[in-house]
Amino acid sequence: MTPLDAALADMLAHPSDDAARLRFYRTLADAELFLLLQAEASEDTVIPRVFGLEDGPVLLAFDLEERLAAFAEGPAPYAALPGRIIAAQLAGQETGLGLNLGSDPSLILPAEAMDWLAATLSGGPTETTATPVAFAAPKAPERLIAALSEKLARAGGLARSAHLAAVDYSDGRRSHMLAFLDASPAAHDALARAASEALTFSGLDAGEMDVTFLAATDPAATALLRAALRFDLPEPLRTEPIAPAAPGMDPDRPPRLR
Predict the structure, then answer these.
(1) What pLDDT is recorded for position 122?
(2) What's the predicted TM-score (pTM) here?
(3) Residues 190, 158 contacting (CB under 8 angstroms)
(4) Distances in Å between the alpha carbon of 182 and those of 11, 24, 155, 214?
(5) What whole-number distance in Å separates Cα of residue 108 and Cα of residue 91?
């Protein structure tokens, strides 16, 4: 059973559980999916195979190549794309997504669901300025801790570690702060967005969390570390040069779906 299988099965088994639904969409956004194509992809353009159903057109995607081949009854052209890229490309297109059809579990997500996912992912953190005056042990719900753990497990090599603490600011505001230590400056936006998505998909309606980037030698880091919950980011495994990615794998150059 793949992580997407587990999240989908949990959502289908608990249809009224918002937390299970959000976990599924979080897993879908982060998953690498194999999108069935009409023809082989070019460098920056993919032509998905469109299936006309009674409720509207759908594209088909699978989280394993073997599942796509089984559905197509043999080799078939595909593009390997993150779920978030597929959602972004389908936004406003009135087209749904069939997920792992022919397998158990499977699901057809309507166009409205893909629009919602794309809109949710398009929201991001906003930049602000505040002065922390005290840190304490975090009081964050377990589902936020779990969402952060899952997100940060994919951020290997972008920072040395991350630390979550409750924080009091000089203006009287209280919140939680997630601090990344010794993060690569080029990774700041990606790490802030990952933290924002973890908060969004944790299902906390009034949840708030600030993100900051500190050097390990920063005096504020010393004070924060005494109270914070630590998340270790894994070391990157890849040592060889990265090969050219499939169309859409670069979030700055998403594919054009035709």
Answers:
(1) 85
(2) 0.76
(3) yes
(4) 37, 31, 13, 6
(5) 16
